[in-house]
Amino acid sequence: MQHLITGGAGFVGCNLAHALLSRGEPVTILDNLSRSLTPLNLEWLKQQQGARLRFVHGDIRDAGAMRTAIQGHDVVHHLAGQVAVTTSVKDPRADFEINILGTLNVLEAARLSARPPVVLFASTNKVYGNMETAAIDEQANRYSYRNLPQGIAETQPLDFHSPYGCSKGAADQYVRDYARIYGLRTVVFRQSCIYGPRQFGVEDQGWAAHFVIAALLDRPLTIYGNGKQVRDMLYIDDLIRVYLAALDNIDQASGQIYNIGGGMQNTLSIWSEFRPILENLIGRTIRFDQSDWRPGDQLIYVSDIRKAARELRWQPQVAVRDGIVRLVDWVRENKSAFQSSKATGSSNA
Predict the structure, then answer these.
(1) Which domains does the chain carry?
(2) Distant-in-sequence, close-in-space partners of 345: CB < 8 Å, separation ≥ 6
(3) For residues 209 and 197, what is the distance between their CA atoms, to the nearest angstrom?
């Protein structure tokens, strides 16, 4: 299969491209390289894969460029997007243009292609908003659901909070509806916290990598809220496995939405529980400040991943502590890149 990855120089995109190319499958990545340090991912891919990788410097907001880029591909992995809530609050128009208009351009290019490809879309748990109807208990080090032992299922009502929630939610629904209205084979993945090597995390996106980078460089951290916020964490290799599982089961997966994360067995509170693990791995105390809650922050989000397990025969394989160890090792090996640059949270569009 011929694969096109939008945002292919980003964290998820470059890992996916590497995995596909290593299987011998042709890959084109499209990226505008607007996010700091993504050129390092592109260079790494070129070193690893050489001439087998095809790169297109392009932007999903350019409808004509997308029409050209998508032609001849069997699968489009639509990963490009504006990825940060805080950035969306500062510049909602750019957030709209990248996430909604950009996604429409991808879908239209796919629909009008001579051979319409499968479209896999990286959505987000933020489409569920703050989930005010979910009863939450506060414990010593974390929040927990009172009546949701498996977490949030795909039947949870949508409730878009923040411009980012609105733009990703609208794009999510466009992708789903193109399967219903036009018969395009699309799959939506509402993703929780994805982490792993080649993630140049910053304060407002990629928090696990951001914490690791700051801790190893002895840079001060700011924790927003009380640090008890809980997330289910999914290692990058497991995310790639579910993408491939969807392709292997596309007749079942087409038109479907899947909540994808580490599930209940891979949860951590973002500071109360993550911090001692990280301090143990780096061998010292981490400096940090605390600040007010940020808009749209969820006290707890844990994916109910049973639908993906049932229909795609997929389960996470990398335990969260093991994944954190791998992430810390990768940041240690690449400290020089982080010392010479301060990444920004802009998009891979």
Answers:
(1) 3-339 (3.40.50.720)
(2) 35, 83, 84, 86, 87, 202, 203, 204, 205
(3) 8
Q: Return the pLDDT at 341.
A: 60
What six digits make up the tokens of 307?
A: 């639908």
The model's confidence at residue 342, banded by pLDDT at 50, 70 and 90, is low
pLDDT tens string 88-128: 999 999 999 999 999 999 999 999 999 999 999 999 999 99
193-252 pLDDT per residue, tens: 999 999 998 877 899 999 999 999 998 899 999 999 999 999 999 999 999 999 999 999
Task: Choose the catalytic residue: 128, 145, 164, 235.
Answer: 164
164 labelled catalytic: yes
**Can you give the pTM of this predicted structure?**
0.94
